[in-house]
Amino acid sequence: MVARAYTVAFEGVEARLVEVQCAVTAGMPGFTIVGLPDKAVSEARERVRAALSALSIALPSKKVTVNLSPADLPKEGSHFDLPIALALLAAIEVLPEEEIAGTVALGELSLSGDLVPVIGALPAAMAAAEEGRRLLCPAACGAEAAWVEAVEVIAAPSLARTIRHFTGQQLIEPAQAGLAAPGTPPRDLRDVKGQERAKRALEIAAAGRHHLLLVGTPGSGKSMLAARLPGILPPLSPIEALETSMIHSVSGLLTDGGISRARPFREPHHTASIAAIAGGGRGAKPGEISLAHNGVLFMDELPEFPRTVLETLRQPIETGEVVVARANAHLRYPCRFLLIAAANPCRCGYLSDPNRACARAPGCGEEYLGRISGPLMDRIDLRVEVPPVAFTDLDLPEPPEGSKEVAIRVAMAREIQTARFVDTDARVNADAEGQLLEEVAAPDTEGRELLLRVAERFGLSARGYHRVLRVARTIADLEGSERVRRGHVAEAVGYRLALGREA
Predict the structure, then answer these.
(1) Beta strands in 179-264 (DSSP E)
(2) How far apart are CA 334 and CA 120, in angstroms?
């Protein structure tokens, strides 16, 4: 008799259904797993054998063959332990075959029969819902998987408890969706003394998801400002939380029991490789830009990143997705992130500091910032020079506004954009393009005249022209203005040209 159970194999954030077929036939006693398993899957037979022995379930003195279908799809990971054990128990008539065939299972078995949490429970629940089957997973993964309301999630602590559930001796209640425990409170903008222009740019960036470059001397507060961006961003919407958690689930980052509504904040080191930033490596896993989906990617010391790494950002910034192409994989990951980059004005860092003259000015700054290519710089909407902070400024009283007050304005601007783009694929102003951008961000007569003069005088590219319009639309949203006016365009242009020679 051939018994069937179901599990999944991961291709990026997608989970493909895998049929686990188990046949117990006459022949030399043995336990064989076929169907392109990797080392972890092949070792499942020893874990399954030990777990069944711990439950005093003896395997028959026959040949046991487990086939993972489709056989040409690579199978990776320890989550195949549980479906293999279920198929085997159904084949020896310990469990009802019909119940097992209607279940998608994943979980790693310990030698004592306990279920160890695994990655990918959320995409597996999506796959189970599409197939109209229930999901069986370890207890620690239940709160995460239960966010997919269209599927019944059974979160079992052990194989013994699973057997009692399917035999009707002790049913397990369906798991309930849960939220991860809140982390440390976000840092407050009130801690930053001075830097009002940089704070304003941070608010605009948060409101419309516009990319921001901060250039200033060491100690001027660039990293301090970036670290306070999560405190003014609105929480993830349910759809955004599900999208982001799908990526974090296959990366093994959901370890707190449930998913988080806080926007991700990723800050890779400048020594990171292309695979670490864009994705790839063994299994073509998502990189930092995908882990920052719907959140913030902070790249400190931007010119210190290898040129090849920086150039990989160009297409993802424009399209909102990255394609990881390898010999055995061709995967797409979403990556709509907010880029916050920080850089010193030159190698020594003090080109713009009047109290510390740079000995190699101005060539030092041009050579250093020249590591950021023109096409990449063209994709950055807001460019702000962060001046050094004087010691006297540190004794000033706290600013009247902190993260709470700024977050209210950002949330109101985001609500305006949500209503504006309700019937489109865009979510924020940074996503608007083509005819949609012309409709929602068309400036008044004075604003258009100013923008045309600036484009002609400073040679704005078509991309730069459109990005100025998007920023101006966000500035108007922050003021509650229905129309983009001359003042909004002027402020957007000021951020666009802030670091150019014409400034």
Answers:
(1) 212-216
(2) 16
Neighbours of 491 (CB within 10 A): 17
> CB within 8 A of 456, min separation 6: which ones?
none
Structure tokens at 222: 């660039």
| CB neighbour list of residue 474: distance below 8 Å, 6 or more residues apart | 204, 207, 208, 210, 413, 429
- Beta carbons of 488 and 447 less than 8 angstroms apart: yes
Q: What one-character-per-residue DSSP string does 36-67 give? A: SB-HHHHTHHHHHHHHHHHTT-PPPSSEEEEE
Q: What residues in the chain have per-residue pLDDT under 50? A: 501-503
Residue pair 27/63 in contact by the 8 Å Cβ criterion = yes
Report the DSSP pairing between strands 108-109 and 115-116.
Answer: antiparallel
For residues 347 and 364, is the Cβ–Cβ distance under 8 A?
yes
> Is the Cβ–Cβ distance between 221 and 192 less than 8 Å?
yes
Helix (H, G, I), strand (E, B) or coil at 69: strand
* Spatial contact of 411 and 208, defined as CB atoms under 8 Å apart: no
Q: The tokens 């008799």 sit on which residue? A: 1
Q: What is the pLDDT of residues 296-348, one digit of tens each?
A: 999 999 999 999 999 999 999 999 999 887 766 688 999 999 999 999 988 87
Question: Using one digit for the tens of pLDDT, what is the confidence trace for 36-47?
Answer: 999 999 999 999
